[in-house]
Amino acid sequence: MENKRIKYNPITKERDLDVLIEEIGDARVVMLGEASHGTSEYYTWRAAISRRLVEEKGFSFISVEGDWPECYAVNRLVKGYRDSGSKIADVLQVYRRWPTWMWANWEVAALIEWMRENNHLRTGNNKVGFYGLDVYSLWESLDQILNYLERNDGQTADAARNAINCFEPFNRDPQNYARATAFVPTDCEKEVIEMLQRISKQPTFTDDPENDFNTKQNALVAVNAEKYYRAMIRGGADSWNVRDSHMMETLDRLLEFHGPESKAIVWEHNTHIGDASATDMADDGMYNIGQLAREKYGRENVKLVGFGTYQGSVIAGKSWGAPMQKMEVPPAAKGSWEEMLHSLSTDDKIILSKDLKEIPELQRRIGHRAIGVVYDAKFEQYGNYVPTVIPERYDAFLYFDETEAVHPLHMKNKGSNKEPDLYPWNR
């Protein structure tokens, strides 16, 4: 393929995003991806895009690939709730579940600082929120439900106690629960569904609508987390689909809660926001939030923006639960999407999918790099490239030729006590 046929716009400063903001237009949902969970440029440029969407197009909230309870604590901080904390770095320590670096990092701290300052100028329902879409927080959500109901609705609290008692034998370990239900025909599905039904029947608990929403959302998380962990032990596509269906249901609920004029920004990995029907994920019966959002709201109302790099460094672990470490990301594989963009030029760039429609070679699946929280560059060619029809998977793509690792709050910078420079357009 003649790479010169790929049109692009160089990106070095924040106003270079104008072409992307114009492409987003009047979309109600904008999903911003990442090719890894540990790359600084993905966070900083998503923050820059999000700021412009909030300021120029009136977006209502940012929702991320994070757990609901932890992100709700951050939401309370950025909205200035009483007793929500004052030091951003301290509040971000709420992210204790591995991989902690995903949201407890300096790049996110900079975003949260901007959100809090921006919200100081807003009142009531006009404040911009920060929420988690993920499904992992079974025990944390149950704890929050019980604590809230014991203060506000003693009768409904009984249903929460029944659910917690059912899970108690598994020592707060979802893996233990999943393994147990695989071999014994008993589970806690009935208890969490009954709890959700009891909570959902209550129109309000207090005069704080968002805190009521928080309780009901935690109940939904408990129901879907129980379903997710049972599906996970069976293998196959079911657990993935349960997880992304939950994310989509949560996004729908947030849009409904914020009103008919609300608009949503989503931060998740490319494998979630990039339309799965344009990848080999579809061959295994998998779908994702990007695909579901397009199907529900229409492609004109949903804009999917992918991110990627040719080489650099990343924060990841060698295995699940392993210590985080800074790792090298080698040059992208020959023939991959990232290698094509590198051979086109070493510019950081924005590519619009509408400019790729007339290139026949891109109407087929090609390798597109994806790095997870577990990574080993030695095995990259065997499992880190997702066959993708790029123009169908995304509406736009941000490419960075060389990137650096994200800056975790839990990892000290050698030789410096200063916070890192988080704005690449200022370097």
Mind explaining what this structure looks like?
The chain is an alpha/beta fold. The chain folds into 2 domains: 1-65 and 122-133 and 263-427, EreA/ChaN-like  fold (3-Layer(aba) Sandwich); 135-237. The chain contains 16 helices and 9 strands. It has helices at 18-24, 40-57, 68-79, 88-91, 106-120, 138-152, 154-167, 174-183, 189-200, 209-234, 238-258, 270-273, 289-297, 337-344, 380-383, 390-393; strands at 9-10, 29-32, 61-67, 129-134, 264-267, 302-316, 325-329, 349-352, 396-403. α7 (154-167) packs antiparallel against α9 (189-200) and α8 packs across α10 (209-234). This is Erythromycin esterase family protein. Pfam families: Erythro_esteras.
* Largest sheet, strands/sense/barrel: 9 strands, mixed
CATH evolutionary superfamily of the largest domain? EreA-like (biosynthetic domain)
Q: Which spans have pLDDT < 50 for at least 5 consecutive residues?
A: none
Please estimate the helix content: 40-55%
Oligomeric state of the chains present here: single chain
The CATH topology of the largest domain is EreA/ChaN-like  fold
End-to-end gap:
34 Å
Structural shape = globular
Structural class: alpha/beta
Average pLDDT figure: 92
Whole-number total of structural domains: 2
Rg over CA atoms, rounded to whole Å, is 21 Å
Q: Give the name of the CATH architecture of the largest domain.
A: 3-Layer(aba) Sandwich
Portion in beta strands:
5-15%
Pfam families: Erythro_esteras (PF05139)
Protein name: Erythromycin esterase family protein
